[in-house]
Amino acid sequence: MSDLASTSRFTDRVADYVRYRPDYPAALVDWLREVHGVTPAWTVADIGAGTGISSKMFLDAGHAVTAVEPNAAMREAAVARLGGDPRFTAIDGRAEATALPDASVDLVSAAQAFHWFDQQAVKPEWRRILRPGGRVAVYWNSRRLAGTPFLEGYERLLLDHGLDYSSVSERYGDDDHMRRWFGTGLRGMASFPHSQRLDLQALRGRLLSSSYAPRPGHPGHEAMLEALARLFAATARDGHVDFDYDTRIFLGVPDPD
Question: How far apart are the C-alpha atoms of 110 and 58, rounded to whole Å?
Answer without folding.
Answer: 12
